[in-house]
Specification:
This protein has a single domain, classed as ABC transporter involved in vitamin B12 uptake, BtuC, CATH 1.10.3470. The chain is mainly alpha-helical. The protein has 14 helices and no strands.
Length: 360
């Protein structure tokens, strides 16, 4: 008995599946050219903001004095002002780069578009650790500030993640943001409680609590630079692993990625950057939130491009905010932490109000 193949009339109808075409070589070339063009724009913007930082402030300086001051001359008040602004500019660049990169890494590690060192309570945890160590344990070493700040940042980050993971759904973006906001408020109150009875140290910490880069010196930069360099290296080398984590833990593991180790390593780099930046400049918020989102609009979600762009753009944003703070309130100045809060708070509200803000 022979069997015949079923006729096409009795076969179920199946819509043809068309393969998704891969990007063509010209499209990839255009994308690479666009990214390189944006890279050039960001580098030029960084150079312009650095020049503005040494030229503008409570005293406007002419370009001839800027050139002389950069060369080391301090014959006039203008040249002396330039020489004093140079380390401040360098510190603003380093702190802004650290916070921008840390924000990009935190958003990648948690797949949370609301992740930010300030919103998640990391900066305030570092601040509380430093204030407590100074008030009760006599900490006086600038290098000790960095170690204590990193420890406080790590403990705070872990605490917020555990609290945000409780209940149904695990660590959702909104739950983490709420846990971080509550933790930041609690830690800020504890900082005030520690400082109020200690008039001997309260004055020095008052401006530091707001966040700023005034009073910078190359000596302070030299003390914090090794920690920043380690944090930069760890975070930038984690870019490929963060791309895998963005696909989901199961798929990342299937691709051969050690999920726990990759997430812990990247988080360690972000904590080192946040701790070092907070130790030298105080708890500056919203840079790590705004910068990665802006960079995704320019270069996409590939962390191999996103993290370097977030580093440079964070430096541009904080340096520009410092210049604005010095210019708008002459002859006084507004601390850079206040300027970034004024810029970042509306942006944060906009992100929260967006629909489907569950994961990157």
């Amino acid at each position: 008995m022979t069997t015949r193949a079923p006729s096409a009339a009795f076969e179920p109808h199946r819509a043809p599946v068309e393969p998704v075409p891969a990007p063509s070589a010209p499209a990839r070339a255009r994308s690479a050219r666009a990214r390189l063009l944006w890279l050039l724009v960001v580098v030029l913007a960084l150079a312009a903001t650095m020049l503005a930082s040494v030229a503008f402030g409570s005293r406007t300086v002419g370009w001839s004095d800027v050139v002389a001051g950069l060369g080391g001359a301090e014959d006039t008040l203008e040249q002396a002002a330039v020489a004093k602004r140079v380390p401040r500019t360098v510190l603003a660049v380093l702190v802004g780069a650290a916070l921008g990169l840390a924000g990009g890494v935190m958003q990648g590690v948690t797949r949370n578009p609301l992740a930010d060192p300030g919103i998640l309570g990391v900066n305030m945890g570092a601040s509380l650790a430093v204030v407590t160590a100074v008030a009760y344990f006599g900490l006086a070493s600038p290098v000790g500030y960095v170690w204590v700040a990193m420890a406080g940042a790590a403990v705070s980050a872990g605490f917020v993640y555990v609290v945000g993971s409780l209940g149904r759904g695990g660590a959702t973006p909104l739950k983490l943001a709420l846990a971080g906001a509550a933790t930041s408020a609690a830690f800020a109150s504890l900082v005030s409680a520690v400082l109020l009875p200690r008039n001997d140290i309260a004055g020095g910490f008052r401006l530091w609590q707001i966040g700023g880069v005034g009073g910078a010196s190359f000596e302070r930069i030299g003390q914090v630079w090794p920690f920043l360099a380690v944090g930069f290296a760890i975070c930038l080398l984690s870019a490929r692993a963060l791309n895998s984590l963005a696909l989901g833990d199961e798929l990342a593991a299937g691709l051969g990625e050690h999920v726990v180790r990759a997430r812990a390593t990247a988080a360690l780099g972000a904590v080192v950057l946040c701790g070092a930046a907070t130790a030298v400049a105080g708890p500056i918020g919203f840079v790590g939130l705004v910068v990665p989102h802006a960079c995704r609009l320019l270069v996409g979600v590939d962390h191999r491009w996103l993290l370097p762009f977030a580093t440079l753009t964070g430096a541009v944003l904080l340096t520009a905010a410092d210049v604005v703070g010095r210019v708008v309130a002459r002859p006084s100045e507004v601390e850079v932490g206040i300027v970034t809060a004024l810029l970042g708070a509306p942006f944060f509200i906009h992100i929260v109000r967006r629909q489907k803000v569950r994961a990157l």
